[in-house]
């Protein structure tokens, strides 16, 4: 484990039961997520991306293996401890934004701080700072339905980052955005990661996003089959059976 690792998974396995069948979602995954990097997680539907996000977000726990946050083992089955860690150390950004429609932009960004019991003056300062970071200070009093899709996603990013998390988990954050808006959001994520030091773990099918990430991790049938910088062709290093499986799922 690197000294700069924010989230580490070692030997992680996870299965789900569907009726009489046991479905392996993750099969012995090892992963390090580094501070200040954008790490893209790719793979076909059913490859294990959502399960991996849930484990890293402390929403679920593995059947086997270990999850470490800042070098310390964590267990999502310890509900209170996991909730506190999610509140303080992990931010979430979703494809559907998940903003509260009756709240203003500033109120949406403020909400996680309010839940955490941060004093009002400190909340106002941090909300203002977060909105400056994402370029939405002029829209603080607007409600989400008055914003474009790209602006809503930037509000969601401000809400995730206002807690100053160590890890931001993003699930298809550009899927509903046009190319120009997606490029703006991607540039913002890169700047926030590289300047602010937060790690971004991003599940995506969007090649525009993977090209701009620092590393790309490919999942297939619950296993990591590719780990490289964008543009690297590492499939030649995989066993023939794995490479054939990749092609079949492409």
From TrEMBL:
Q: Which residues form the ABC transporter domain?
A: 7-246
Pfam families according to UniProt: ABC_tran (PF00005)
Q: Which UniProt keywords apply?
A: ATP-binding, Cell membrane, Membrane, Nucleotide-binding, Transport
Composition bias (Polar residues) maps to 241-250
Q: Which SMART domains match?
A: AAA
Quick one: where's region Disordered? 230-250
UniProt-listed InterPro entries: AAA+_ATPase, ABC_transporter-like_ATP-bd, ABC_transporter-like_CS, ABC_transpr_LolD-like, MacB-like_ATP-bd, P-loop_NTPase
* One term of GO molecular function: ATP binding
> What is the similarity comment for this entry?
Belongs to the ABC transporter superfamily.
Name of the protein described by the UniProt record: ABC transporter ATP-binding protein
The protein's organism comes out as Roseateles subflavus
Q: What is the lineage of its organism?
A: Bacteria, Pseudomonadati, Pseudomonadota, Betaproteobacteria, Burkholderiales
């Amino acid at each position: 484990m690197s000294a700069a690792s924010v989230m580490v998974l070692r030997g992680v396995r996870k299965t789900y039961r569907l009726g009489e069948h046991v479905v392996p979602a993750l099969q012995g995954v090892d992963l390090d997520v580094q501070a200040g990097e954008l790490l893209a997680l790719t793979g076909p539907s059913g490859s294990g991306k959502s399960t991996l996000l849930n484990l890293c977000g402390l929403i679920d726990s593995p059947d086997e293996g270990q999850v470490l946050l800042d070098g310390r083992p964590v267990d999502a089955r310890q509900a209170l401890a996991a909730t506190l860690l999610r509140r303080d150390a992990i931010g979430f950004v979703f494809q559907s934004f998940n903003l509260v429609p009756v709240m203003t932009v500033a109120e949406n960004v403020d909400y996680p701080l309010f839940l955490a019991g941060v004093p009002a003056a400190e909340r106002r300062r941090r909300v203002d700072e977060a909105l400056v970071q994402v370029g939405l200070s002029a829209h603080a009093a607007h409600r989400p339905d008055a914003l474009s899709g790209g602006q809503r996603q930037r509000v969601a990013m401000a809400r995730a980052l206002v807690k100053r998390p160590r890890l931001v988990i993003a699930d298809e954050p550009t899927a509903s955005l046009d190319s120009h808006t997606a490029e703006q959001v991607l540039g913002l994520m890169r700047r926030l990661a590289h300047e602010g030091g937060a790690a971004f773990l991003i599940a995506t099918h969007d090649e525009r996003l993977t090209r701009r990430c620092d590393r790309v991790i490919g999942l297939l049938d619950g296993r990591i089959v590719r780990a490289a910088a964008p543009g690297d062709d590492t499939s030649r290093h995989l066993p023939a059976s794995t490479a054939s499986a990749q092609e079949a799922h492409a």
